Each structure stands twice: as structure tokens, then as C-alpha cells.
Amino acid sequence: MSSVAPAGKALAPPPAERPKQGRGLPVNLRQSGIYIAFALIVALFAVLTDGQLLSPQNISNIIVQNSYILILAIGMILIIIGGHIDLSVGSVVAVTGAIAAVLMVEHDVPWPLAILLTLLAGAAIGAWQGYWIAYFEIPAFIVTLAGMLVFRALTLTILGNQGIGPFPDEVRTIANGFLSGYLGNIGLGPLGGADLFTLLVALALVGGYVALGWRNRQGRIRYGQQVEPLPVFALRNALAVVVVMFMAVQLARFKNMPWVLVLLGALVLGSTLVMNRAVFGRHVYALGGNPLAARLSGIKVKSVSFWLFVNMGVLSAVAGIVFAGRLNQAGPTAGNMFELDAIAAAFIGGAAVQGGVGKVVGAITGGLIMGVINNGMSLLGAPSERVMLIKGLVLLAAVAFDIWAKRRAGTSR
Prior knowledge:
This protein has helices at 29-48, 56-65, 67-81, 89-106, 111-134, 140-159, 169-176, 196-222, 230-254, 259-277, 279-289, 291-296, 301-327, 338-348, 360-379, 384-411; strands spanning 185-187, 193-195. With 413 residues, it is mainly α.
């Protein structure tokens, strides 16, 4: 039969398609694979270490010991989403830690002012590199490779090739300290006592996570986009709640919540909101996905790239202060290989090599995977070369999985 409408009558619009519940596998492996892998790695090392990995003190150690890498991973995932790379972050960590040490220890600058000046120095370093990348159009690989050498040289010059310390107690507390039990401890039966404030913070966090996930799901349904089946959504959120609350209980049983975890949580929340809700975040994804299309659509791609590196400089300064505070001194070898750990965390966490894909939470998960591998292998007494071997294989597997998932998505259309 002909589909032509009678004269004077318009064709009725086709009925709106119901949102697809996903074909084939009920779980999007490209989005959820990293979390499944993280759970499997944690379970494996928990068994191999007879539960030591999940002890309250060890969980706290994993977070505190890897905090500066996780901070760098937040900035690195944004850089990679935007289609760039930054090889200089380890050297920037070193030079900003050196600046903080000179200000606080040698010149007795009050620690709040010294931290502010250090953050401004990090922003200036990021602006310097961002200018050459964005406005002079030198590839980020070259600019940051030069920066890796230049800022390491500046570190040696500032420190005179020797360590400077100790830092004020307040700075050391940021890196190694724990919140006081503001609301006291409560009994948890066989688990022992736990800080009530830490548990309430965790409950608020998981409540917000579930509410945001439900809101995003409903938004996708309204626009007819593909969503995962409701049972899968419920199971995924239930697992996330269980994991977060378990970690919170273990932290609350040890020495309450580390201050550096509060700082890290604020950075993750702020960065996630920027990338998911702000215009700047959408521009970053557009820049990494297709730079030419982004430019033609009116996005100020040079400005976006510039501010990405300013942000990376500030976060590197934060990591530099935390790392120096943890060691209680700034040293000339600080930050060695940090850039590789941050890049690995971003790629393991789901960033695409070509840019345009990635999430802040994914980068944090990737960083935690690296931290669990380091910690678990250490508990097993494995030599350092075996740890590097495992980490390298995990990185290779993550990138190979990303490429496989892309090809599978392309052939299934």
C-alpha cells in the first residue's frame, strides 16, 4: 500500500520508540567493566592475603598512600578526554612541593598563605604549558616532555639538591591525619565500635549516588535513549552501596575518615559536576571527540585546552603539598614516575586513547586498582619487578579491552 497521505492531510508522525533496554549483554561492558574488574581484583587479593587486604588499617593505608596519585588522576582524565597528554605532572609535584617547603620552612610564611602561593605557582605552571599547547599549537606531548625536564631542573635548583623539612603540623595532618570523632563511636556488634560521623557521611554519599543515577536513568528514558534493565540498575547500585558502606565501616573502625579522603572527595565531586553539568565539561568532551567539529560549532577550543592545563597545574600543586606533607619534607626525587601512574589510572579507568571518552570516577577506580595491586603484592612479599610486570599487563589489557569494545559496538550497529 502507498504511504502517501490524501490531499490536504499530513502524515501522522511515527510513534515514539520505547527506550531500548539493551541488546545482547544486559551490562555495558565498556562502562561497567572497570568496576567488575576492580571487584574481582579486590576479591582475589583478599583471598590470597587471608583477608589482610580488607582490614581496617590496610584500607586506610591504601587510600592515604595513593591519595596524591588519585588527585593527579582527576586532572589527567580531563586532559586525556580533551585529546591531550601531560608528561610533566611528576616534576610539577616536585617543584611545587619544593616551593611550599621553602616558603614554610625557610621563610616562615604562615602555612595557609604558603599553600595559596603554591597553588598559584601550580596554576602559573599550567598556564605556561597551556599557552604553548593551545595558542602556539605545539603538541602537548612535546611541551610537557620539555616541562618534565625543566621543572625537575627547577626542583633541584630550589632545593639545592637536598631535602627541606619538617613541615608544620597542620600540613602533615592534611596528608596523614584523621577526622576527630565529632559524634562519638557507636557499637556495631562483632565489628566493634565505629565513628558515627564517618558512617553518616558514607550514607549521604551513597544516597546521593543512587539518587543521581536514578535521575540520569529517567532522563535517558524521556529522550528515548538506551538504558540498562531495571534489575541490572538495581543490582549495580546495591553493589556500589555495599562496597562504599563496607569501606566506610572499616575506616570508621580504624582512625575515622582520613582528611585527605575528604579533600579527594571534594575534588571528585567538583570535577564530576563540571564534566557532567557544566558547559565547560561538554566542551571538553566535544574537543576530544572531534576537534574540527568542535571548532566549527563555535567552541573556543584554544581556551578549553588552556584551562585544562591550568587545572592540571593546580591539582599537581595539591598533590605536591600532600606528598611533601606525607613525607614531612620536600626532596629532589619527589614525584618520580607519578605521571605514568596517573596516565595508567586514567586509561585503566576507561579513558579512550583518542580522547572524548572517560569519567572522573573511572579514573579514581583505575588508580585504586593500581593501589590495590601495589598493596596486595606487597602483602604477599612479591619483588618490585613482579609488581611492575603485573601493572604493565593490566594497563595493556585495559587499553586492549577499550579497543575491543569499540570494534564490537561498531560491528553491532
